[in-house]
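It is worth pausing here to work through a concrete case rather than discussing structure prediction in the abstract. The textbook approach is simple: state the sequence, then state the predicted structure, then interpret. We follow exactly that order.
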Amino acid sequence: MTDFNPELDLYIERHIKAKPETVWRCWTDPKLFAEWFAPKPVKITDIEYEFRPGGKANLTMTLPDGTVMPLEGCVLEVEPARRLVTTDALGSGYRPRGEPFLTAIIEFEPKDGGTLYKATALHSSEEIRKRHEEMGFQDGWGTTLRQLDELATSLT
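Step two, the predicted structure:
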C-alpha cells in the first residue's frame, strides 16, 4: 500500500464474511457489481471494466433525482482477489484526462474465514479530499461495503 497521507487521503475498511475470491467475483461480474457499487437507490449501468493494466474502468451512475453521472477511468494494477487500483486521472490505454478526482486502491486480505476489505481514496489536494469527505465518503462507501458484504455472503 502507498503511504497514507491524512491531508490528501480517505480510508475505510470492513470485514466481509465472504472469501476474497467471492468478493472479487462481485467486482468482476457486471451484474453483481451493479447490485452493490453505489448506495441504493442509485443505479449503476454501462459497466465497462477491463481488469488489466491500462484497461477501462467506466460506469454510469443515475441518482434518484435523475442526474446521470458517467464515470470514466483506467485500471492501473490488478492482482485478482488481492488488489485493484483505478484512477479517473487517466482513461483506458493510460490516456490523460481532465482534472482528476481520485485514485482508488482496493485491497482484499484473507482474514477469519472472510475478507478484510481495505479501500483508500487518494486525492491530489486537500481541497479535493475535503470535498470527497463532505460528499459523504464514510457513509457512502460504508453503505456500499455493507451491500457488498450482504451480496458476497449470499453467494457462498
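Step three, interpretation. The mean pLDDT is 96. The CA atoms of residues 109 and 116 lie 5 Å apart.
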